[in-house]
Design a protein that fits this description.
mainly alpha; 2 domains
């Protein structure tokens, strides 16, 4: 940490602690609003809050209170939280990139399969939600790319796995928003 970074860290920490001691809600809100776009400040404020809670020896009910406070903050200070957006749709290019990254799979491709995958790497078409074989085969024909059945089977399987991963990620984000907990170790 450079001297300037340490000075900024110390200044923000002191401002936060002073605002807490003084009950200055405006200063606290301003710091948390800045933390939305500054991950280091968010981590600092979270660590200070956690440290103060541990030092105070708060009872088990503090977590319930924290959820209530987060709910009130979302209601009355929505700018302090990132906008809730859905994940963008899975694209052909993303599936082709995942296939390309699998060296063992790519090693078994024919020249036509390699050429097809190279073309698909630039294709931003959304992959359909229905990936059952009849739907997939009709959709795949619209791409205008010729490849072996082996390639298309791998493409379909990879698309299904990537779509499942996105569903899981979206579910974790939605659950985190509802409970006020961050998914997989992050901060809410």
């Amino acid at each position: 940490m450079t001297h300037e970074e340490h000075s900024a860290w110390a200044e923000n920490a002191l401002r936060y602690l002073d605002a807490l001691d003084a009950g200055d809600i405006g200063a606290l809100a301003e710091l948390w609003e800045r933390a939305v776009s500054d991950p280091e400040l968010e981590r600092l404020l979270g660590d200070l809050t956690d440290g103060l809670a541990a030092e105070e020896g708060l009872d088990a009910g503090w977590q319930t209170d924290a959820v209530s406070v987060r709910t009130l903050l979302r209601e009355h200070l929505p700018s302090a939280f990132p906008a809730e957006t859905d994940l963008p749709p899975l694209t052909v290019a993303e599936v082709a990139a995942r296939l390309h990254a699998d060296a063992a799979l790519a090693a078994r491709w024919s020249g036509a399969d390699r050429a097809a995958n190279s073309r698909l790497l630039a294709n931003r078409t959304s992959v359909p939600e229905k990936l059952g074989l009849p739907h997939f085969e009709k959709w795949q024909a619209t791409l205008g790319v010729n490849a072996s059945p082996h390639y298309w089977r791998s493409f379909r399987q990879t698309a299904v796995l990537l779509a499942m991963g996105r569903c899981q990620q979206a579910g974790e984000l939605a659950a985190a928003r509802r409970t006020g907990h961050a998914p997989k170790g992050g901060r809410p």
